[in-house]
Structure formats: C-alpha cells, structure tokens
Amino acid sequence: MLTDITPLREIPAFRRLWLGSMLSSVGSAMTMFAVTLQVYDMTHSTAAVGALGVATFVPMLVIALPGGTLADRFDKRKLVLVITVCQTAVSALLFAQAALGLSWLWLMYVLEAASSAVSAINAPARRTFIPALVPAERRAAAMALNRIVFQVMMMAGPALAGVVAAGFGVKGCYLIDTVSFAGSFYGVSGIPAMPAPKTHGPGRSNLALTVEGLSFIRRSQALLGAFLTDANATFFALPVSLFPAINAQRFGGDPRTLGLFTAAIGVGGMVTAVLSGPVTRASRHGLVMLTTVAVWGAAFAVFAVAPSLWLTLLALGVAGAADTFTVVFRGVIVQAATPEEFRGRVNAADYLVGAGAGQIGSLESGVVGSLTTPEISALAGGVATILGTIALGAALPGFRRYRDQPAEADRDRPPVGVSLRGHEARDLAAFGILSS
User: Fold this and answer.
1) Residue 188 is part of a domain; what is its CATH number?
2) Which end of the chain is more exposed for a tag (fewer CB within 10 A), N or C?
3) In the prediction, which pLDDT does 204 show?
4) Domain count, the chain
5) pTM for the full model?
C-alpha cells in the first residue's frame, strides 16, 4: 500500500533534490498565501485577487514555451541555478515592500508577474531532472515521491503562513520564503551536468524548436488528452480566489482558518500520495486521470455548499486526494510518451497547462463570484468540471484507452547507477545517459 521509496534509497542525486525541493516549496507556499491575503486585505475584492491570475498567466504564456526550448538547448542544471538566484531576489523584494508598509496594488502585480516569468523557465527545466536521474521502471514511484513534496508544501506552507501572518504579518512569510531558497540550491547543486542533446545545435532557431514541440504534442492523443483533462480541472474547479471571501462569510475571516483550507487539500493529497503503491502500478493511466478529475470537480461542488467547517475541510481533503492521482499519472504519461529531445518543450507545455489554466481559472472564479456569489461560482465550476471530463473521454478515445508504455528513448536505456558521484557521473554524462 505504501509509496515505493526505492528511488530515494538508490539514487543519491534524486534524494538530495527531493529534500531540497521540500524545503524551498514550503517557503514558496507561504508566499502564495501571503500575496493572496495581502491583496485581499488591500482591496476586499475577489476580482482583485483573481487578477493575480492575469499577472501570473500573461508572462507564463509568453515565456513558458520558449523557456522549455532553452531547457532543451542548454545545460539544464546551470539554467536552474541561474533562475533560482532570480527567484530569491523576487522574494526578497516582496519582503521589502511589506516591511516598508507599501500598499501599492500595482507593485504586487508586477512582482507576481516577475515571479511567474522566472518560474516559467525554471519549472520545465526542473521537470526534466526525474527522467534524467531515475530509470523508467522507477519513474512512477519517483513521481509519487515528488507529489509528497507538493503535499507537504500544501499542508505545512499555508498552515505555517496563517500562524506567521497572524503574529508577524505577511512580511514574515516573505522573509521565510527568501531564506528557504537555500534548499533549492542544495538540491540542484548535487545534480550532474545535463548538456543539451546534439540534435539541438546552433543551426536551429528557438522558434523552429518551439513549433516542432507543439506539433509533436498535437499529434499525440495521449499528451493532448492529459493536458486538456488537467486544464479542465484547474480552469473550472480551482477557486483559490474565492477562499478569502468564503472564509470571511462563513468563518469570520480568521487567517488561521483560511490557512486550513489549502492545508486540507494538502492533507488529502498526502494520504493518497503515501498510500499510492498499488495505484502507481496501474496501467490505464488515461482512464484513471478522467476518473480522478471528475472526483475533484464533485468535491469542489460539495465545498461550495458545505454548511460547516468540518464538511468544508473534508470536501477539500477529498479534492486533494483525487488531485494526487491526477498529477502523478499526468506526469507519468508526459514522461513515457515524450522522447528525450522533446522533454524540455513538452514539460514547458505541461507547466503552462497545469499552472496557467489554474491562474485563468482563479480569475474566472473571482469574476463570477463578484457577479453572483462565491458559493455559486464554486458550485458551477465543480459541475462544469464533471461535464467537461465526460466530454473529453468521449472525444479522445485514444487517451481514454491509453496504457503505460515507455518512451522511445527509454526502450534501450540502461539503468542509471545507484551512485552519481565523481568520475561515474562524468562518464554517464559523457555517454548521454543522464540526459535521456
């Protein structure tokens, strides 16, 4: 029943990346909480909170796909280290504006846009680390372990942020996030060099490589179905912008209660992440994704009408439980269906869909909530997700019937050694094994 921890035991570079990512992710979650709370306190408007989605999505839309091309063209490890420096600087600026007491809404949007821009380059490159370090037969387990990092972030980050914000203000959250980037540097610094494949030489333009990646996704019903199914879930049924208003209407607006909303999603996700052993061995990945997204939508529909705190948190916990399986199988499909030379670009599209659709969905939820009520907005989003899942399953039979299969690059791939230190790591990199 338990998650397979073999990748942590056998691959030191993955273990170090996993630990470092957990630390930095908790800090990032605290900043996400603090930005949402600060904007709502400044404006008391769900639409203004939803507009953070625009500030996040626009630079993401412009930069993510070219950023994925960069990840396919340059050393991914060096690229991530440079971008992490930029992310640290943005968090430091958020701390500075909060410490100085600046109530400038435009500045919040600018800093949110800057954070999104650097993340749009960082995330696609980071997502190539697992297939580079972990052999194909251990990849589902590694994805489940990676999801545990996310669930720890979802539980610890908002809960801790609520306590810190109540005691020290949002500036305390921003300061902790800035310091937590030390974990990111620790994790990435232990990864061997990951040079670009020789097929992406200087003779080909970034635009040509980006278009080539999009064409590859369009031809793959497995990838197209995975992306559209996830976008359906996050666009319609991820009403984060409604959380402050619903918390204020039902539970008095206590920041600690608001922190429990996101933490409940994390708890539910952690339960299924820890008990993901049998599920990660399932082969009908497309059907599982469709089913779990429908459960996700139903859970948010219940959240919209729940009369008590315990039922509200239970519904959010069920949503988190379903989301873990959705994300794990989406990740496995993406890595299994993508040859090595396309991984940066496909992971960029994966990031754009997973994060971008949620940001636009946050705006949609906020606007609908302002025009109607937050409860109607959340309920309509949950129902729309269920209907969208049914439509996608009917329209994409190839995705619905998709079964696990290794990518072309993995079929003859020798296993990565259990130790990636010294001359062994250099030799593996020299033969291209680490980047395949």
Assistant:
1) 1.20.1250.20
2) N
3) 63
4) 1
5) 0.64
